[in-house]
Design brief:
Helices cover 36% and strands 25% of the residues. It is of the alpha/beta class. The chain has 3 domains: 72 residues, no CATH class; 187 residues, NAD(P)-binding Rossmann-like Domain (Rossmann fold); 181 residues, Dihydrodipicolinate Reductase, domain 2, CATH 3.30.360.10.
Length: 499
């Protein structure tokens, strides 16, 4: 409904801005200013509706002309709030003005498929919304930077290495120059091949930056412990982008499991398989250093851990080399693992990256689990939506991961949304929150504040000790299938060991 020039709100009431828990979207609370005895709940329904509608419009730059009945403009109310109000984020009191004005500068290390299709669209959309400042991208080759400029015309970012005149420049250490140039407040997003994560993460931590890394954290538990020790020493935030945690199909399972609907876990089966274009075209240079279990199977390993909180006890794994070796690539086609967890429940995970390129979507994926009181079954590929077009043929369409839609305010613009978006933004928002909570503190106080915040997130985020579980399982799986499918267990620090 249209909003009037003036709202019939009690003359004793004013709207005060109260930012939400992550500082992204404003909500409003009605509070009294002239009659403290009048509680917000006693204000008229119209007051609450005005407040709600204005809150929705505020992120779009609207609402400043709305007036309260006593003649005070909401723009004036906002200005008063910016000077006086403080709010709490993640248990830390920070300035609302800082929350509005602080933009996080982001360095993305890696310019491959996930950067092009998910990470950069997310970063640019957050930049347009005013939450991210400068964006820079570091890759090994200048041709990758040139390609990204063609994909994102009109978007401003600094590239490393950059070559003039279209010539090719190769520099495997370009990320180090980019780190040296990254302005504070800043964050580093690591999206390199899996086996290269560790040196990038450690370099970012050494430079004093917090990190978001694509899954897995790394592929060796020895490296994971190096990251854990460095992050602990510096009170640094390292978030692994396990975006399946943000899939509502997985969150639904966790919600009901934690409330006892499924009882105790008995067994489960997860499958995730991708087209052969992945190792043959997209990752041809490094497919031999990974496997489909390490690359994508880790999603469902982490999902089971995320849902149950259980740690693995032992596993046995299998892998096959047939198709890719015939194409000159010494890499595994498929891999499977049977994982026994500490409560004796079992999860079987099957993975592939040699499915037909004619598949109706990039990824076959799904999960089922059985508990003593119930079961869960979900096809995470077929979400009940498909297209059949002359342009694309038959396509199973997943609207939940990362898709573009018409922007509500400008239908000619793309608005990206989905759990792939939400996962990355959670990590960036946490880093921004840390900066806000430690502004103005001396080094010792800032470090202590960081430790408090990290402790609060320890059981809520895929920080290194949580991400260690996925790394331990994928390392154990490789040890198993490279040792004639022997059983592999784990020590107290989650380091795999042959049994």
């Amino acid at each position: 409904m249209p909003l009037p020039e003036r709202a019939t709100v009690s003359p004793w009431a004013q709207a005060w801005i109260a930012w939400d828990g992550v500082g992204r979207w404003p909500s409003l609370a009605v509070a009294t200013c002239c009659r403290p005895a009048v509680r917000p709940s006693r204000l008229g329904a119209w007051a609450h509706e005005l407040v709600r509608l204005w809150a929705i419009r505020l992120p779009r730059g609207e609402g400043g002309s709305l007036l309260c009945a006593n003649g005070a403009s909401l723009a004036r109310v906002r200005e008063v709030h910016r000077r006086r109000c403080r709010h709490t984020i993640a248990g830390q009191e920070v300035s609302s003005m800082s929350q509005c004005d602080t933009k996080l500068n982001v360095l993305l290390i890696g310019g491959g498929m996930i950067s092009e299709e998910v990470l950069l669209p997310t970063l640019f959309q957050e930049q347009a919304a005013g939450r991210i400042g400068k964006v820079s991208v570091a890759t090994r080759r200048s041709s990758t930077i040139q390609h990204l400029r063609q994909i994102f015309p009109g978007r401003e970012f600094t590239g490393y290495p950059e070559a003039a005149g279209g010539s090719e420049v190769a520099d495997p250490n370009a990320f180090q120059k980019a780190l040296a140039d990254l302005e504070r407040p800043g964050a580093v997003v690591v999206a390199t091949p899996d086996h290269l994560h560790t040196p990038m993460i450690l370099a970012a931590l050494e430079a004093g930056f917090d990190v978001v890394t694509e899954k897995p954290l790394c592929i060796k538990t020895a490296d994971a412990w190096k990251i854990i020790e460095s992050a602990d020493e510096k009170a640094a935030y390292v978030y692994t982008d396990y975006h399946k945690r943000h899939d509502r199909a997985i969150r639904a399972l966790r919600y009901r499991y934690r409330r006892g609907w499924l009882g105790e876990m008995l067994h489960g089966h997860a499958w995730i398989e991708e087209k052969r274009e992945i190792p043959l075209e997209k990752f041809v240079l490094w497919a031999g250093k990974s496997s489909p279990f390490e690359y994508i199977g880790v999603h469902y390993v982490d999902a089971y851990y995320f849902v149950t909180g259980l740690k693995p006890r032992r596993l046995v794994a299998f892998a096959q080399k047939k198709l890719l070796v015939s194409k000159g690539i010494d890499a595994y086609d498929t891999a499977q693992a049977t994982i026994e967890w500490e409560d004796n429940s079992v999860l079987f995970v099957q993975t592939s990256w040699v499915n037909s390129n004619r598949n109706s979507t990039l990824t076959n994926q799904g999960m089922m689990v059985l508990g003593t009181e119930g079961e869960y079954w979900a096809d995470h590929k077929a979400r009940g939506l498909h297209f059949v077009t002359e342009r694309g043929g038959y396509e199973d369409y997943n609207p939940n991961f990362f898709k573009a839609y018409d922007d509500w305010d400008d239908p000619d613009k793309d608005q990206w949304t989905g759990y792939g978006y939400d996962s990355l933004v959670m990590g960036l928002n946490d880093i921004r929150t840390i900066y806000l909570a430690t502004q103005g503190l001396d080094a010792a106080a800032a470090k202590e504040k960081r430790r408090q915040m990290l402790a609060n997130w320890a059981d809520k985020r895929p920080l290194p000790r949580q991400a260690l579980i996925g790394t331990a399982v994928i390392e154990a799986a490789r040890i198993s299938f490279e040792n004639n499918s022997a059983y592999v267990g784990f020590d107290d620090n989650m380091r795999p060991k042959l049994l």
